[in-house]
Amino acid sequence: MLTVLLLLFVVLVIFRVPIAFALGIACMAVLVFLSDIPLTALPHKMVNGIDAYVFLAIPLFILAGQLMNAGGITQRLFTFARTLVGHVHGGLGHANIVASVLFSWMSGSAVATVGGLGEIEVKAMKDNGYDAPFAASVATIGSVLGPIIPPSIPMIIYAAMTEESLGKLFLGGVFPGFLMAGSLMVVIYVMARRRGYPKDQRAGLAELWRSFREAIIPLLMPIIMLGGIVSGIFTPTEAAAVAALYALLISLFVYRTVGFRDLPKILVDTMVTTAVVTFIISTTSAFSLILTFEDAGTRIAETVLGISTNKIVVLLLINIMLLVFGALMEAGVVLILFIPILYPLALQLGIDPVHFGVIMCANLMIGVATPPVGVSLFVMTHISKLKMEVLMRAILPFLVPIILCLILLTYVPDVVMFLPNMFME
User: Fold this and answer.
1) pTM metric for this prediction
2) Which residue spans within 102-153 are E strands per DSSP?
3) Is 155 domain-assigned?
4) What is the largest CA-CA distance in the chain?
5) How far, in Å, CA of 32 to CA of 196, rounded?
């Protein structure tokens, strides 16, 4: 039954049936023709699959990102980042990464990061003498940081499906995200020196203070969110509500870049994006029902452990598998598909579930910028008007440092667990 399910799903995807529909149709066909499970279990599982309190954070973080994009907050963050690091060789490339880090603290989505900052960043770099493929690849690779540095929609999904602490997952992503950002800036510096890319004049204290003053209000958002989570004032889901409310208030009343007339469109865009994400989660829940009925997790674990019981080897195999699938399918889909399979295997091997969650998210976020079908690549080709093959070639050098960082956080658990162990029991 499991083989037929997977084959039918793959065939439907090949014929360009949307992922959520492909999963739902494949599950329904298998239940009708090959299973004793009643078909009524399908809608029941689909509803229960998204009936989790922690999933409320998804639309709220999406709303916060939409409000920041509409409110011009991204421009203020990029300007502040440019005054900080624009004087270094390849300055606008570094500003791109710093702005992505700052925006990552607020959005939780790779697509929101590249969509919100990409157009601003690429235009600024092209206007200052950077070639278009380099500018586009830097903006694309920066989006990888979005769901690794908290808040993170993939981590929300992982926490909901495994009942692990979302606060620990958020803290676990902080240092790996900064590590990846630093490694990307090293590559940008080396490439900028070799290619003779320009740099800005060092910003004076007055200019630095002015850009900081304009960005300070949105910069307080991650401090409020993480501070509230760590101190126990509110839960991660409540933090998402705080983020959305904060973005709304500063866009409406402080910067006044969003009017009440703009809110209906922002809310509709948020609902559409949320519907897409939750529909995928819903149909994947039905998929996981069949996986559980077929005891797929145990069978796959036995297969993997039949190859090797060495934790180092197993983690290497898992990383390779997730990188491949992350480059071929939408990251959230892969995450939901593989959590029921890989989570029990990780527990069996004695891997900390928080550490493993960050490993999974990091793998799949690298996938959003990895050829052939990384979703951030498609968004950037639309923004930059570059051909896909041109962007694919340009981004390859930037994949090396973040994959090296992935290896480090995989085999040195303290890279992930340092902050969760320090601040949370």
Assistant:
1) 0.77
2) none
3) yes
4) 72
5) 63
